[in-house]
Amino acid sequence: MTIRETMLALLKQSGDTFISGEEISKQLGVSRTAVWKHIEELRQEGYVFEAVRRAGYRLLSTPDVMIVEEVKVGLATQAFGQHVHYYTEIDSTQNRCQELAKEGAPEGTLVVADTQTGGKGRLGRVWHSPPGTSISMSLLLRPQLELQRCPQLTLLAAVAIVEAIRAIYEIPAEIKWPNDVLIDGKKICGILTELNAEADRINWLIIGMGINVNTLPEQFPEDVLGVATSLRIVKGEPLRRVPLIQEVLRRLEELYDLYVAEGFAQVRKRWEACAITIGKRVTIRTLHGSFTGVAEGIDDSGVLLVRKDDGELTNVYAADVEVHA
């Protein structure tokens, strides 16, 4: 860990107990002047400390910031998020993650931004992320998998996000196939997976995740206001973003390791347990037309199985899905 990461970990672990500047400097192997400088830098970023002569420092409050130190302190993963690149503003975390992938960044590298000016959604749509409200992050993977298995990784991300929201906030989030995360029928998260591969191997795969955490109704564009929501709207109070980032990364790494070791079967069960689509009447819209039927499940490759009104069981590989009430 860096000096600032270790310092924050010490201060958080001490809770309401003061920890002396001398003790901090001893554990970090730096001078007390250096400790003071780091404390002042953290104050500039919104951290509130109480400093008492001969007693030391204690941390009173932590701002809702997604800086590297916040993401990494207390992160319970082996690889995912252990290399973090944070930006207050960026065009797209996907674009930056692609650049890092080309430069040889390791698997698990995370790019996270407070706001994006050119966030991307599926089918070329724009993903809106007003400053201070959402999680915009992209995770770099270098899977040793057959090319045809890569679409399943998007389903893993959806499961990790839904399970994390349910665990932390006790909110009944659900998945609409393939990767929309909904609460009360309204979208709270989008997932975009982009792949760089050759005929015989995958160079890298990037999972982009945008989660509406503290977005207020008036911050949504008019064209999505009726179909989007945020955790703050649902809970009725502002929420810190870092705990959700950490829990999503922990669960996604767990699912990824399970998937690589045992295949899709166990992940499929967890996906179906989170899905709003299964067993419901749906309208499927593709580039070639639309039809209605009942969604019966997904197969071992993640393809949606829909029983059409004429009784035919159809595989749906890519489509917009409307779930009927």
TrEMBL record:
Keywords of this entry: ATP-binding, Biotin, DNA-binding, Ligase, Nucleotide-binding, Repressor, Transcription, Transcription regulation
Residue positions binding biotin: 116, 187
Enzyme class, broadest EC rank: ligase
Pfam families per the UniProt record, alphabetical: BPL_C, BPL_LplA_LipB, HTH_11
EC annotation from Swiss-Prot or TrEMBL: 6.3.4.15
Domain of life: Bacteria
Residues annotated to bind DNA: 21-40
GO molecular function per UniProt: ATP binding; biotin--[biotin carboxyl-carrier protein] ligase activity; DNA binding; transferase activity
Function per UniProt: Acts both as a biotin--[acetyl-CoA-carboxylase] ligase and a repressor.
HAMAP family, per the entry: Bifunct_BirA
PANTHER family attached to this UniProt entry: BIOTIN PROTEIN LIGASE, BIOTIN--PROTEIN LIGASE
Protein name: Bifunctional ligase/repressor BirA
Record organism: Aneurinibacillus soli
Gene: birA
